[in-house]
Design brief:
Helix content is 32%, strand content 25%. By secondary structure, it is α/β, with parallel strands linked by helices. The structure holds zinc ion. Zinc ion (ZN) binds at residues 60, 62, 92, 311, 313.
């Protein structure tokens, strides 16, 4: 007798889409059975006509908790993740107060957020110029990677110089961790921004021109070289450009352990959206051209990416449109840069990839579950449909049409560049460890059910 049987679905793994049944016991996948073999179970879910994906893993989300709850918190952010089909969220260490930069703060953060999580979660550890001695402690606590910047960030989270990145990656290499970077070259962006302001180019084209692909390319290539020199595993965050993806692919082909993620917005939205609609579409790196969006998909298809992340970066309405800390936003450079997408990424990726571009669902399972779990050291428990793995599943109705409305969003701030988007193919059931936590876009799970997942290796 099993607890749950998910039957008649088209089971999607990285290798194949096969009709079959999944038997679940004690929160784990007990057996993957051929179609027609239907053992008894307490609960039976009929997934006929639907795809059954491994639960998606969001490799990059800012849940902003503790400390910045006016932007987002665990309760709202993880509820949104559940509704959208992300069963595990890898949460960023910054836009936290304090930022997650040592082992003691790791425990404090778990204490602060655990009772509010609807989905399972992992932590990125902080990597800033003054916490190199704390990295091993964070790693031992279970951090899955370390996040740093080669570009401007908020005053409470400093970026690394290339020299500092070199030392940090030598240190992280010693204990086998992975260093992740926001790759946009600081000096180039800062100079370009000043140049635009000097030339009076305070419009959205000015913003786009201040963050060229070149800035992303230079930072990425440098980090790849530092990774090669140190032997440290590296992760390139939120790649927006197919030319940058090509450099990463070449390093992978040379045998270096360099992983990367892109985001649903880089696979669906364009620079035109920024020009036409402004602040809601501001993010960093910025959105690129339609031609680049189309080419970026080929790097999802060939497996270059270990993650289609949300880079969920919420803010209040005022931070996007009106003012920050009492100062009026006077130009495009001052509006908050970040797109809220944790609830809609999976459906957007499915629609753009599997419906519009006719890409095999296996590609998505690989990019959103299998490879992320491997890159972040939680494969074996998360990321696949195999006996022994947590029963984290997303059941997708490929025929179900959707339109994203702000009412449907679970975010603290119900604003998103994705509001108004329409598509087909919707995650109708999200299951975590054998329990249904969301149905038809509505959260049915319990707050606090989500658990901390520490790195396994
Ligand atoms: Zn981010």
């Amino acid at each position: 007798m099993y607890d749950v049987l998910v039957k008649n679905g088209r089971i999607v793994t990285a290798d194949a889409v096969t009709k079959g049944n999944i038997a679940i016991r004690d929160g784990r996948i007990a057996a993957v059975l051929a179609a027609g073999i239907e053992p008894e179970a307490e609960t039976v879910i009929d997934a006929a006509g639907k795809y059954v994906f491994p639960g998606a893993i969001d490799t990059h989300a800012h849940l902003n908790d503790p400390g910045y709850e006016w932007r987002e918190d665990y309760e709202h952010g993880t509820a949104a993740a559940a509704a959208g089909g992300y069963t595990t969220v890898v949460d960023m260490p910054l836009q936290n107060e304090p930022a997650l930069t040592n082992a003691e703060l790791f425990d404090r953060k778990v204490e602060a957020v655990d009772a509010n999580a609807y989905v399972d979660y992992c932590f990125w550890g902080g990597l800033v110029p003054d916490n190199f001695d704390d990295l091993k402690g964070l790693y031992d606590k279970g951090c899955v990677a370390f996040k740093s910047f080669i570009g401007p960030v908020s005053p409470d989270y400093s970026p690394l110089s290339y020299g500092q990145a070199y030392e940090a990656m030598q240190r992280i290499r010693e204990f086998g961790g992975r260093a992740g970077f926001h790759c946009e070259d600081f000096s180039m962006i800062k100079w370009q921004e000043q140049r635009m302001i000097k030339e009076g180019r305070l419009d959205w084209q000015g913003f786009l021109d201040s963050r060229p692909v070149l800035a992303e390319m230079i930072a990425t290539v440098n980090i790849i070289e530092i990774a090669k020199a140190t032997g440290c595993k590296a992760h390139i965050c939120h790649v927006s450009s197919p030319d940058v993806a090509q450099k990463i692919k070449e390093a992978q082909q040379e045998g270096y352990d360099i992983t990367a993620e892109t985001c649903a917005h880089y696979l669906s939205l364009t620079d035109k959206d920024v020009i036409e609609n402004g602040a809601l579409f501001k993010c960093a790196p910025p959105l690129r051209s339609q031609e680049e969006v189309d080419r970026l998909w080929s790097y999802v298809e060939d497996g270059t990416f270990s993650g289609i992340a949300s880079d969920h970066s919420p803010c209040s309405y005022d931070e996007k449109f009106n003012e920050i800390l009492g100062n009026k936003i006077t130009n495009v450079f001052e509006a908050w840069g970040g797109i809220s997408g944790i609830q809609s990424c999976f459906q957007v990726a499915f629609y753009e990839g599997c419906v519009k571009r006719n890409i095999c669902p296996s590609v998505l399972a690989n990019a959103m579950a299998v490879q992320p779990a491997k890159a972040f050291g939680i494969y074996g428990r998360k990321g696949d449909i195999r006996p022994g793995f947590d029963a984290d599943l997303v059941i997708v109705d490929p025929e179900k049409e959707w339109e994203i409305t702000s009412d449907s969003l679970y975010y603290v701030n119900k604003i998103s560049a994705f509001v108004g988007r329409k598509g087909k193919g919707f995650p109708v059931i999200t299951m975590i460890r054998g329990r249904v936590v969301a149905e038809d876009g509505r959260v049915t799970g319990e707050k606090g059910y989500g658990s901390l997942i520490r790195r396994l290796d």
